[in-house]
Design a protein that fits this description.
heterodimer; A: about 525 residues; mainly alpha; two-stranded antiparallel ribbon; 2 strands; disordered C terminus; B: about 675 residues; two-stranded antiparallel sheet; about 5% strand
Chain lengths: ~525, ~675
């Protein structure tokens, strides 16, 4: 069943998914003093274990690779089915790359219940990677919900003063969406031939009216995670209260679950509904881009500023996804990685500062360049990356997203371009107030430059910023086949719809009216976007 | 040859990496040697590339590597070497080299010495990418890169709040232009499916006039930002917060001319868009005149020069707009020589006066710093357009072109601008170097001539300012024009060669007369009857104050754009906390007190969130009362159990109805 026979000997993905879980259990048998080192070792081992996925990944095919399938429950048929393609691979690597840094930044910041904390981090890692590799809807949902619990604990136990409010808000908000996701999954199950196999379900044509309902249910789950305007208000609260490692995971990985969901489920399974809702999705994305930027401009708290900048940046990601062309989607994928790297790094920067001054207020943390030149250099680098300076990672993604958007609609791209002006404004204004000027008397004595551990936390990210910015191809190459396949799948579907005579005349995909008719038999035989070769 | 091309940006890049990463480990001497040495090597390579281009007479492209490949978009990091690039290369590396040398003396003893040279070299790398790129995206990397270095160097004195503000302002204002530039890039890509110049220009004739105009205007937005033209010029005068060599290199000789370079590079598209072209001309003409009037009354030596730069860039835009692309590049080059000379000599003055920049507190410096005086005077003569210095030839060519092609209004603006230029430049010279000393006694004791490392680069620039113009003699038919001809075949121009020798000579005489008139007036007001200047100002206080306050443009922008944007942010912040989050919290409260109210909120019914929120809120309320972490586990367990039951119920239902559960 596995087309990548060279890996059949070792269940590589299973190992990557469950190593952190095993590690989390192992932690309870480790001495309190050694927990940090063991956790660091485990996350590094996990990173090492995930690298072969990239090295041996075959970029020429959109098929699922490193696939494994084991029957789990027979009636109804639920399988332990995992695999990766060019859409999930980069996200997995980003996750494994960030986790050691999360351990490092928590080294001294977390003083209470360190064992449980590290265990929660590792549980989180298993759940997150599980979401990216799952090819069975039930399995996916298990991992999806499993993410909530360690995150809830991270915020609720090790968070700031208002942590319980933030944790509950986060939990309820995301759970509300998730439950609708579950309902949608079950509906798909009944309509799609009684299987939970994601690839098989992607190959089925659902009636247009049904697609719209499922789209809305998916939207509820994914839009909250992204978060899209106006479902974003849990984010600033969660970020402000979460410990640094929690903020990094939240911003870098958890937000990507929403956009990953759009790419993995919404687009391939619901092409008609995607068409119907694309203008609204683009509209919401544009609002998010500008709204997030304006909000960031108004913030006086560094973490809130970066949290709202996330809303703006994730607006770019959804914009690229719903441009529905190769540039847009590859740009969106790039931006998902870049946002993970850059915003993660900015949260690390804030955390490092907070450990010193115990304040996240911009006004309390001024004039850092004098006493903390190295720190200021990193802050400037990551801010420049965040505003999409060419030569840094974000430029490549932003450029592709804007190019894709431009091909979809010129005015939309022009509006989005305003976002990059505002990004420069709120980020450089922040840098101006934090890095320049003279230190405030209250915090001045506490401003000590980076130590070796902190330097080791930030340097890998700075290297990535420039590496991806200057040589993006190693990152882009694995995406091509999968993204092209997805775009072709969408196009094919439009051709099929065109035969029913509801497509616009200028060749651009216009809104297609949901007619609920059964499609002709000839249009039914779509390939699923990816296949691991088993027969339905 | 290819290697030579690749080496040009590589040398400064290596210096950036060495000084940036290891600079704190070795002496300042090694750091500055690496810095100017690398630029010097780039200059030598540029000469090699230049001579090769003269010899072979063909443009060549050199691909470094494939940069971005996504969808059907492929972009290489690649370079185009043609006559236009060669001129830019020589100006950038040549003037850049001299300014680096000068900086060794000027920046001596500064705290961030190595940091300064790292940024300067990074600037060189970016500027070289900008002028060498063979496609729009490489141009754009350079474009933003120089903007970044400008930002870093304006904010070089990071503990000065005014410097930090000026830096942010420069970057953000430039970003407005950059957004326009990006849109132009997308328009090019959508129309041509490529971003390479050669392919784009080869197919450009297929563009409709409307599309060509759209691309040209979007590019113009970018150019206006980078080259500080109306309405985006306000960042440049503030940029004078940076160290003086930065003002000379970035904010006079090279970076700010990038907009001119871009328009000339894209002249094929501009030639197809008459509306865009005349917009360029008028923007340039207005800026030339407008900035010159502000320059009349400023009292900061660097700010006068800054407004003069804005004004001179206006001349280059004007030239582009009337199709005199060669003249634009010619003026770009001569301006680089004499404006770098002026800024660096102004720096020498400031250096001599321990940081004093107010010309009202100078005067009589001629005897104390004779070399600086002589060099500054050469620069003044050149920029004022006194025959036969460089500025005369290049400025006269632009004005003559306008006149000959019937653009009399533009000619008039340029002519008045030239008169004002001569006036304010000589005013500056008189107030600084002549008359009685107005120095405060403490400063006066320490006045000293600058060291040779600062004077020698100035001497070279002075020679170029005197002789550089002869590259373009005779007008419209000099060596310069023949060299650039393959790149710049302007519409209608060139063939006509103006209105005959007689008219050209007449226009030259008129131009000289205008310059002398400006000089004469300055001489009268600031040398012969020194009290007269104040009288003039006193007679028209309104005009004087308006000019002194730069027409209040900054204040208008602040009131109309900056503050509203910030306020809007605050309004949205309120909206976010009160309305959006209020809805979220409110839904929770309502469901808690009973579901009767919540039925009104259709939206939440559609999303089906109602019951879940209500149920979960009930749990939440309990957790609120007992904020124990033990409660959290219990809570999580309940959620998981609930989900488990839910799934099982649905599955049970499915098993019962499996016969009819199929959709199809």
């Amino acid at each position: 069943m596995n087309d990548v026979s060279m890996h059949s000997g070792f269940p590589w993905l299973t190992a990557v998914v469950f190593l952190p879980l095993v590690g989390a259990l192992l932690l309870f048998f480790v001495k309190e003093t050694a927990v940090r080192w063991v956790a660091l070792g485990l996350t590094l081992a996990e990173l090492a274990l995930s690298l072969p996925l990239w090295i041996f990944f075959d970029p020429s095919t959109p098929r699922m690779q490193f696939a494994e399938q084991v029957a789990w429950i027979t009636a109804p048929s639920i399988n332990y089915s995992v695999g990766i393609d060019g859409i999930s691979l980069p996200l997995i690597l980003m996750t494994t790359f960030l986790m050691p840094l999360c351990v490092l930044v928590s080294w001294t910041a977390i003083q209470t219940r360190i064992k449980t904390f590290m265990a929660a981090l590792l549980l989180m890692e298993t759940a997150m990677i599980g979401v990216f590799v799952a090819l069975d809807f039930v399995l996916f949902y298990v991992f999806w919900e499993a993410m909530l619990i360690p995150m809830y604990l991270l915020i609720g136990v090790w968070g700031g003063a208002n942590r319980v409010y933030a944790a509950i808000k986060f939990f309820l908000y995301t759970l509300t969406g998730s439950v609708l996701l579950l309902v949608a999954i079950l509906v798909l199950f009944f309509h799609g031939g009684q299987t939970f196999d994601i690839l098989l379900l992607s190959g089925v044509e659902y009636p247009s009216a049904l697609q719209s309902w499922i789209f809305l249910a998916f939207f509820a789950a994914f839009a909250v995670k992204v978060p899209m305007f106006p479902f974003h208000t849990w984010l600033p609260d969660a970020h402000v209260e979460a410990p640094t490692a929690g903020s990094v995971i939240l911003a870098s990985v958890l937000l990507k679950m929403g956009t990953y969901g759009f790419l993995r489920f919404t687009l391939p399974m619901l092409p008609d509904a995607t068409d119907t809702f694309t203008p609204s999705m683009i509209g919401l994305s544009l609002i998010a881009v500008l709204y997030g930027a304006y909000m960031a401009l108004a913030q006086t708290d560094l973490k809130k500023l970066i949290a709202y900048s996330s809303v703006s940046h994730m607006g770019f990601v959804t914009l690229g996804i719903f441009a529905l062309n190769a540039q847009g989607i590859e740009g969106a994928l790039m931006q998902m990685l870049n946002h993970g790297i850059t915003t993660g790094a900015l949260f690390l920067c804030v955390g490092i500062l907070y450990e010193r001054t115990h304040s996240r207020l911009i006004a309390d943390n001024a004039g850092l360049t004098g006493p903390m030149p190295r720190y200021a250099a990193f802050l400037v680098i990551f801010s420049l990356s965040s505003l999409g300076l060419p030569g840094t990672n974000s430029f490549v993604g932003e450029f592709l997203v804007l190019a894709g958007t431009f091909m979809w609609s010129k005015p939309a791209a022009a509006v989005a371009a305003l976002g990059i002006i505002l990004a420069a404004a709120y980020l450089l204004w922040m840098v101006q107030r934090v890095a320049f000027g003279a230190p405030v008397a209250k915090t001045a004595p506490k401003l000590i430059d980076l130590n070796l551990r902190e330097w080791a936390t930030l340097t890998p990210l700075a290297v990535l910023v420039f590496w991806i910015g200057l040589f993006p191809n190693p990152v882009l190459t694995p995406m091509h086949a999968s993204v092209n396949h997805l775009v072709e799948h969408l196009d094919q579907r439009h051709t099929a719809v065109a035969r029913r005579g509801t497509l616009g005349t200028d060749g651009r995909w216009l809104t297609i009216t949901a007619d609920g008719e059964q499609p002709p038999a000839s249009a039914k035989s779509h390939l699923p976007p990816s296949t691991i070769g088993q027969t339905p | 040859m290819d290697l030579l091309v690749l080496l040009i940006p590589t040398f400064p890049l290596v210096a950036v990496l060495l000084n940036g990463l290891l600079g704190s480990r070795y002496s300042h001497d090694l750091a500055h040697r690496l810095a100017w040495g690398s630029v010097g090597l780039s200059f030598l390579c540029s000469i090699g590339v230049f001579t090769e281009t003269i010899r072979t007479g063909v443009a060549r492209e050199v691909v470094a590597y494939q940069w971005i490949f996504g969808g059907d978009l492929t972009v290489n990091l690649a370079f185009l070497i043609d006559p236009l690039t060669c001129i830019m290369l020589l100006v950038v590396t040549g003037v850049g080299f001299l300014i680096h040398l000068y900086s060794v003396g000027y920046m001596h003893g500064e705290e961030g010495f190595t940091r300064f040279f790292t940024y300067m070299n990074l600037f060189m790398v970016s500027m070289l990418l900008l002028v060498m790129g063979n496609n729009y995206l490489v141009l754009f990397i350079g474009w933003e890169g120089v903007g970044l270095c400008s930002y870093l160097l304006i904010g070089y004195y990071f503990d000065k709040v005014s410097a930090a503000k000026a830096a942010t302002k420069a970057f953000v204002v430039n970003r407005i232009g950059d957004a326009g530039f990006l849109l132009a890039i997308f328009l090019v890509f959508v129309n041509f499916k490529t971003l390479d110049y050669t392919q784009v220009f080869a197919q450009a004739s297929q563009l409709s006039t409307g599309m060509a105009t759209a691309i040209a205007l979007c590019l113009l937005v970018g150019a206006v930002g980078k080259s500080a033209q109306i309405p985006l010029y306000t960042w440049l005068p503030d940029a004078m917060e940076g160290p003086t060599p930065v003002s000379a290199l970035i904010h006079a000789a090279t970076m700010v001319t990038a907009g001119v370079y871009m328009i000339v590079r894209n002249h094929v598209i501009y030639d197809m868009a008459p509306v865009a072209l005349s917009t360029v001309a008028w923007v340039g003409g207005l800026t030339a005149l407008f900035a010159a009037t502000i320059g009349l009354v400023q009292t900061d030596i660097k700010r006068v020069l800054a407004y003069s730069t804005v004004s001179q860039l206006g001349y280059m835009f004007l030239a582009c707009g009337i199709g005199a692309y060669t003249a634009a590049v010619f003026h770009l080059m001569t301006h680089a020589f004499f404006k770098a000379l002026l800024f660096l000599s102004a720096g020498s003055v400031i250096h001599a006066l321990s940081g004093e920049q107010n010309i009202m507190k100078m005067g009589g410096l001629k005897a104390k710093i004779p070399w600086t005086h002589a060099l500054f005077l050469v620069g003044t003569l050149a920029i004022a357009g006194i025959f036969p210095l460089a500025g005369f030839w290049s400025k006269d060519e632009i004005m003559a072109h306008a006149f000959v092609h019937g653009q009399y209004a533009l000619y008039a603006m340029a002519a008045i601008g030239a008169f004002l230029t001569a006036f304010y430049m000589f005013r500056l010279t008189y107030l600084t170097f002549y008359g009685t000393s107005r120095l405060d006694p403490h400063t006066a004791e320490h006045v000293h001539e600058s060291p040779p490392i600062m004077i020698w680069p100035l001497a070279v620039l002075a020679v170029l300012s005197v002789l550089g113009g002869f590259l373009g003699v005779p007008p419209e038919a000099g060596w310069f024009h023949h060299f650039l001809h393959p790149v710049v075949t302007a519409v209608g121009a060139g063939e006509e060669h103006g209105g005959g020798v007689g008219l050209v000579m007449t226009l030259m005489v008129v131009a000289t007369a205008i310059a002398l008139l400006g000089w004469g007036l300055a001489h009268y007001l600031y040398s012969i009857r020194t009290e007269a200047a104040d009288n003039v100002a006193a007679k028209a206080p309104g005009v004087y104050t308006t000019l002194l306050n730069k027409y209040y443009v900054d204040e208008c922008y602040d009131a109309l754009i900056v503050e509203p944007v910030k306020r809007l942010g605050l309004v949205w912040d309120w909206f976010d906390r009160t309305v959006i989050d209020g809805v979220v919290v409110g839904v929770g409260r309502m469901t808690q007190s009973g579901s009767a109210l919540s039925t009104r909120i259709e939206k939440y019914v559609i999303y089906g969130a109602l019951n879940v929120v209500g149920y979960a809120n009930h749990l939440a309320a309990r957790s609120w009362r007992r904020l124990q972490t033990g409660q959290v586990h219990q809570y999580a367990a309940i959620i998981v159990a609930g989900l488990f039951i839910l799934v099982h119920l649905i599955l049970a239902w499915w098993t019962g109805t499996s016969g009819t559960g199929m959709a199809r």
